[in-house]
Amino acid sequence: MPAGTAWYHHDQPSSAVTIREAYFDHRGARHGTRKLSKSSRMALALTAACCELGKGKVFVLQPDVSDLSSRRQRLVEARAAFLAVPSLFFVPSTWSADEQARWTTMRPLSQLEELTSRSGVVPLSQSVLPIDVELSSEPEACPTLNGLKTATATIIIAPTPYAGLTQDMRAACGPVDVESLEFRCSSGWGPFQRWRRNDGLIGVVEELASMYHSGRAALAFFGSLRGRLIQANMAAAQAGQAYLLWHATEEE
User: Residue 196 is part of which domain span?
Assistant: First the structure.
């Protein structure tokens, strides 16, 4: 994939955002290529918007739960444990003109290497904003939030973007469904209009930065999030289940 790859497209008339799908060659892969995970693509798309704005970065804490293993029938407990660990987190920063120019000339996989939690860029003592994402390429009839996720902020791409505090979005949905463990706003998207971002991912990043600095959002130390991911891995291994794969791709 070449440098300068556009990770999202914002259709201004409809406000819809399309997150680019991408594949790359992977030695030993069953089909010769691997698909970049949703969380990895979202980190790249959001950080592209951060670069344009000149503030903030979004990092990948873990790939999608679909990356656990192909033996899905054995992974019910592991899936629940990993769902409780946020997939992304926002870190405040200020981009210099040189940093912006450098980022736009980097190849996508080099960008992603810098946005993984193992890159060493983020200190363990850094306060971060945990983020979960609900991503859909087709319009949804109503907002739906996974009740097992625990991040402070939620971004919905449906494909119109929404961004807000998870607890506020869940409150707008009403009680959790005890069977699906989902929060579903059966009345439609009306109650969610206050979180709608007609300005696309630029607006989403602005909202993330606002939440981080406002004092109204529960932040977490990066080290504590990393510890939760390690604990989920250990619990899965002790139960005889597979470790979370540490690559940034999805199983095909």
Answer: 8-250
